[in-house]
């Protein structure tokens, strides 16, 4: 962005005029000193506020540099409380399954009616036995699935250019600088800072960065919750009347887990896209336009899990 | 010094003039008080004493606001300059994707970074394709069950063989689509006569309209001026952001194209494949949608100015709203085409709620009128 183009001489003269008039107007020297002191105190305060915001945003940027780890993070099934809750659900379901299997066995042995009923009871028995096996090993199935998803994500992330976080850092620093400029004007003039307009501009970059982390955390918690109820999901999916609900839950489990791969893919594409704009010589992308593109990329990354889950919903038979 | 600088000087001069005027009134009030009526003089003196206490603070506040205003006006001007200079090239995005053959720039989609990932994906998929073709053929030859299953397997086999060809031709296909989109866009944008080609500067009208309000309101209260400021920033930035997202989405969907074709080939994953294929085609043709909106806005803008004027101000305001809706449509039209904005149809509920009472009220008044006429 271009610098303020006003002549410093004119600035100086106008400042002098203002001071002379103020002196002339106030009945005593304290009349002018007091507001000036007040203004200086406020300027100091504004400077402190914007400095603190900057420190906060710099911390977030440091976290952003490790975005790979955040994207790759999945709830650990075997070590955490997730396993305890899953085990609890599995023990309940195992009891139910065993009871039903015994009841069907009794039916088959003692009450066997028509051949059709016997056939359907037999196929139910088979389904139940398969079901109890799958539910018992569901934590391990989930672990394998997480492993596959993480491997895909890691592979995609390895395709990224080295400076893959730069677009997001540029975009947030651009807004931060604008906010700081408005909050505590300035290197070359007599202009005064504006607090009420500056704070939203300082807050926006923080909110954007925090938004990415929040969405990554949201994905993490969604995956954790959906993995805890995975035994129930399998139960619901294996019976015809409750298949709709089971399908929905299973789909959500798969999609929220694979959302990490989608986010990694979008991250890589944005980095590649922004890098390529430097290579093109026939269409020179100005800094402002580049900032807008980076901002668009940031929003795209934030919306990726939601769009991904919405777009692919209903893919299971 | 440019016009902006002059404007700034004028602004500061205005403050100084204001200060001088108030100071003159102040001095007059202090010195001419004996000539006035005692009660009025004392009142005036009290007032001026209060002013002299508050005055330096007030002066500083006004200076602060004027300075803020000019800083923001500068930034908005820079943004509008970026917008008006880059909108049409950015709608085309041709140089970004296909390169400029004159300057021998490498085409974007054939840049090593994109080509590397695409080739990797294709090489991952080709064994899967071979395996799928093998399994389907084995099914057809040995397991062939019902006629329905056989027919389905046959069509899958044909799709797989076609798909294998298509994924190796990913880049030419996407480039062909991009070229078609570019051709349609250029045809649409060249519809206005060469004497009056589409002038993106028309969007300045909306900027001037909002910045006027922003200026007026900012002097009273900065916080209330901010929504106007947000509009001023969001409208041009939003249009460019949708186009920037298109730029990223074209790269993304190009790289994902082999998977799209694979998913589209199988019966079970056909739905997902169709969604992805839809998205690919719509994102590629976003420039055509934007070109139509731009063209319509330009025609409306011109036709309003060609009406014999009843009052200039009204026409200007009318055109401001034409341009404003042009802005909104440039942002929303691609999203509507994508189906992202389908939630907006739920707003029809509101109209449905109000429609019946409105219809009843109209019927009531019309019947009343009829009765009056009959009487």
Commentary on this structure:
The complex is a heterodimer of chains A (317) and B (375). Chain A has 317 residues and is mainly alpha-helical. Among the domains of chain A are: 7-35; 66-79 and 139-311, no CATH class. Chain A is 81% helix and 0% strand. Chain A is built from 11 helices and no strands. Chain A has helices at residues 8-25, 29-64, 67-72, 81-110, 115-136, 138-158, 166-183, 195-228, 230-238, 243-279, 287-311. In chain A, α5 (115-136) runs antiparallel to α9, α6 runs parallel beside α10 (243-279) and α7 (166-183) runs antiparallel to α8 (195-228). Residues 187-191 of chain A have low confidence and may be disordered. The longest helix of chain B has 55 residues, at 38-92. Chain B has 375 residues and is mostly helical. In chain B, α6 (170-189) runs parallel beside α10 (286-306) and α10 packs antiparallel against α11 (312-338). Chain B is elongated, with a radius of gyration of 33 Å. Chains A and B meet through α1, α2, α7, α8 and α10 of A and α1, α2, α4, α8 and α9 of B.
């Amino acid at each position: 962005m271009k610098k303020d183009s006003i002549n410093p001489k004119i600035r100086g003269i106008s400042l002098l005029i203002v001071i002379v008039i103020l002196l002339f107007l106030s009945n005593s020297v304290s009349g002018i000193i007091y507001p000036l002191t007040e203004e200086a105190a406020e300027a100091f305060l504004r400077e402190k506020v914007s400095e603190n915001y900057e420190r906060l945003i710099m911390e977030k940027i440091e976290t952003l540099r490790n975005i790979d780890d955040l994207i790759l993070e999945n709830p650990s099934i075997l070590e955490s409380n997730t396993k305890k809750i899953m085990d609890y659900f599995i023990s309940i379901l195992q009891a139910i399954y065993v009871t039903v299997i015994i009841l069907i066995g009794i039916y088959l042995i003692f009450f066997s009616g028509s051949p059709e009923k016997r056939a359907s009871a037999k196929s139910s028995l088979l389904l139940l036995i398969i079901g109890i096996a799958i539910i018992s090993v569901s934590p391990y199935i989930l672990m394998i699935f997480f492993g596959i998803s993480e491997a895909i994500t890691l592979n995609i992330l390895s395709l990224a250019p080295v400076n893959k976080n730069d677009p997001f850092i540029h975009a947030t620093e651009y807004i931060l600088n604008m906010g700081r400029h408005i909050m505590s004007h300035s290197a070359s003039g007599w202009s005064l800072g504006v607090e009420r307009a500056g704070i939203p501009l300082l807050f926006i970059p923080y909110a954007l960065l925090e938004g990415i982390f929040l969405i990554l955390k949201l994905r993490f918690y969604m995956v954790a919750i959906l993995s805890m109820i995975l035994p129930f999901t399998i139960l619901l999916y294996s019976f015809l009347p409750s298949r709709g609900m089971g399908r929905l839950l299973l789909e959500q489990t798969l999609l929220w887990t694979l959302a990490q791969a989608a986010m990694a893919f979008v991250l890589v594409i944005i980095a590649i896209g922004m890098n390529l704009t430097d290579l093109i010589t026939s269409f020179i992308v100005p800094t402002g336009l580049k900032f807008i593109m980076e901002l668009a990329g940031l929003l795209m990354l934030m919306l990726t899990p939601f769009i991904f889950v919405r777009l692919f919903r209903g893919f299971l038979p | 010094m440019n016009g902006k600088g002059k404007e700034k000087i004028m602004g500061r001069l205005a403050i100084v003039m204001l200060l001088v005027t108030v100071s003159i009134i102040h001095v007059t009030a202090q010195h001419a008080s004996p000539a006035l009526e005692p009660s009025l003089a004392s009142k005036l003196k009290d007032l001026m004493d209060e002013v002299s206490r508050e005055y330096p603070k007030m002066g500083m506040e006004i200076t602060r606001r004027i300075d803020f205003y000019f800083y923001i006006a500068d930034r908005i001007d820079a943004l509008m300059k970026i917008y008006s200079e880059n909108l049409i090239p950015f709608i085309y995005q041709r140089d970004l994707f296909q390169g400029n053959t004159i300057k021998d720039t490498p085409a974007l989609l054939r840049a090593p970074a994109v080509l590397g990932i695409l080739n990797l994906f294709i090489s991952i998929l080709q064994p899967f394709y071979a395996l799928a073709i093998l399994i389907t053929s084995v099914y057809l030859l040995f397991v062939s069950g019902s006629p329905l299953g056989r027919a389905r397997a046959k069509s899958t086999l044909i799709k797989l063989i076609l798909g294998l060809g298509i994924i190796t031709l990913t880049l030419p296909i996407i480039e062909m689509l991009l070229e078609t989109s570019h051709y349609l866009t250029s045809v649409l944008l060249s519809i206005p006569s060469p004497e009056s080609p589409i002038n993106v500067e028309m969007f300045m009208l909306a900027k001037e309209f909002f910045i006027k309000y922003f200026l007026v309101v900012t002097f009273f209260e900065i916080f209330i001026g901010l929504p106007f400021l947000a509009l001023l920033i969001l409208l041009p930035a939003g249009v460019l952001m949708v186009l920037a997202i298109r730029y990223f989405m074209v790269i993304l969907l190009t790289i994902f194209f082999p998977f799209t074709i694979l998913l589209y080939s199988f019966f079970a994953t056909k739905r997902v494949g169709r969604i992805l294929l839809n998205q690919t085609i719509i994102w590629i043709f976003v420039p055509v949608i934007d070109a139509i909106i731009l063209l319509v806005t330009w025609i409306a803008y011109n036709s309003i100015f060609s009406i014999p004027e009843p009052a200039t101000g009204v026409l200007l305001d009318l055109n401001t709203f034409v341009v404003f809706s042009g802005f909104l449509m440039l942002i929303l039209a691609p999203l509507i085409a994508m189906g992202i904005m389908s939630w907006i149809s739920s707003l029809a509920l509101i109209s449905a709620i109000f429609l019946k009472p409105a219809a009843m009220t109209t019927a009531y008044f019309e019947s009343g009128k009829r009765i009056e006429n009959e009487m």
